[in-house]
Amino acid sequence: MAKIPEKELMFQGTTACPGCGAGNAMRYVLKALGKNTIINIPACCWAVIPGVYPSRNLDIPLLYNAFEATGAASSGVRAALNAKGIDPREITVAGFAGDGGTADIGIQALSGCVERGTDTIQIMYDNEAYMNTGIQRSGETPYGAWTTTTPVGSEKAWKKNPKKNMMEIMNAHGIPYTATVSIAYPEIMIEKIQKAKDIPGPKFIHIYAPCPTGWRSDPSDTVKLAKLAFETCVFPLYEIENGVYNIYKKPKKKVPVRDYLKLQGRFRHLPTEEVELIQENVDREWELLQKKEKFTKE
Amino acid sequence: MSEMKIVSGNFAAAYGAKLSRVEVVAAYPITPQTEVVEKIAELVSNGEMDSEYVKVESEHSAMAACIAASNAGARAYTASSAHGLALMHELLIWASGARLPVVMTNINRAMGPPWSVWADHHDTLAQKGTGQLQFFCENNQEVLDSVIMAFKICEDADIMLPAMVVEDAFILSHTKEPVEIYDQELVDEFLPPYDPEYKLDVERPFGFGSLGMPDWYMDFRYKIAEAFEKAPEKIEKVNKEFTEIFGNDNGGLIEEYKTDGVDVLIVTMGSISSTSKDVIDELRKEGHNVGLARLRTFRPFPVEKFREITKGVNVVGVMDRSYTFGHGGDAAREIKDALYGHRDLILKDYIVGLGGRDLTPKILKNIMLDAISLQDKGLDKEIEWVDLRINQERWRR
User: Which residues are A203's β-sheet partners?
Assistant: First the structure.
């Protein structure tokens, strides 16, 4: 297992909420990628977290870009470096976008970026809603969740649609490497990001980043929730390398999904039968993933 | 050695980018711009042009990639038209806010609906407030020249702004004309490599485009305004330098055609200027004291220059190939702005050639005769839509 590098590239003075999972995500990403990294950030929580002009808490070159433009910006920076003769293994270009900026408004630019083979790591820190604008539902908000645009109310209007599977969408582009990682397991997270860094071509990393503000959870439960997401198989930890699935960390014993849901106010309204439905879906997805692993490894 | 080639406006734009040694091209195809990107793809594929060509999936991404590349210190170029340009809108503003000298060629095409692929200036002029410098070209040579000059102007430390070099759909984009393709060494001398003071650099990390609170934002905007104030002088200077080296004078802010001591001044933009100049000659032969000002630089708007060239003029007739609804033709309105409190004259706005409607010498002559007639009869109406289906008899007779 990778040792967590001591070098800090993220410093105090962030504007993040207490218990912000995205804060940990950036810290570990930078530890993994090191100082020879250029990061693109679109509109998202991390457009604000580094601080306001002229302050900045990240000690790497940082390019802010428009909400939907991260993939294109990564291609642009990489093209400029190519023009200057700077090798992708020498300087890493990474996009670091929230779930909205990756899976919704940014999906076109991301798709283009990876389809044209840009040598970059596109990272989605997934807090499962538009948190920076005040907890509106996104394509990554899971079924059943309350958000300010799925406010439940008397009509039981929680989110009725499933979470968009970005790992599959990225894998369908035929890119060499995609991985899910969790802030609950920083050593493995760093190992997988460093692995991605060394692979030529487009890579995609899906970081699970709990958001106490939007999930209506206790800020001190952030890491616990990330662990539970793994143990319940709500967020399995796996990688896809050239089409081959590898569930690199499997829970010893599967924990019931309700243990994960009950720590979050955003699922408080769900009746038992809905929780059972979510459990069924998680079980089915988990089984499917294991079958994919078996099939692609054979 | 420079070389004369018979090329379209689109190829001229591509050769302009090649001679400017652009390091990154990011573009998406749209009619009638496609030949620009096809030619660049061909030049890059043949090893004749040393550029990274990013084949993006939309115009929005084209400008986003150019912005990012420029931020990383590369000279970046793109080309688009009409709906593609409109899709870029957010990033046209971003490029100027970020103070990046990205240069693009826009092929002026009407906006739908109804769908149209023909010449019209509305696409470009709908972007006049985005902080882009805007240069309207009359011919293919000027397209090539203007791309090179735009980089020179925009990369100046006092300016650091993006620019649009624009040419009319089909009339220039697909019409072949003799164009001088300059000697590369001469262009290199005129346009040195782009070397910005600040860029994305791991040895000297900066953040670009972070959150600006109200106590900062306004001052950044003022700095852009200051750069625009400096731009007219810079444009004239670069045009002069270019003329001295390459022998082609494209007019800088405004190209004046027989304007000395005229009573009536006609203002045109883009490709109709050439035909209009012939008509001016004809009218002068017939004894009319009329001249033409070709508005070449729309942004920054040459306010001072207009005040200067309208001294002693009785009537200004402006031909606008665009119309801003609820307001009027864009050039006429801005000229009025410029002259307010400075000149007491008659100004009439002629809305012409929208969506590629043909402007024959006869129609142009009738417009100019109408402007001339205003000297005696006074202004009949502020805005006249010319050659509509309901008034064609008048303008085509």
Answer: A121, A177
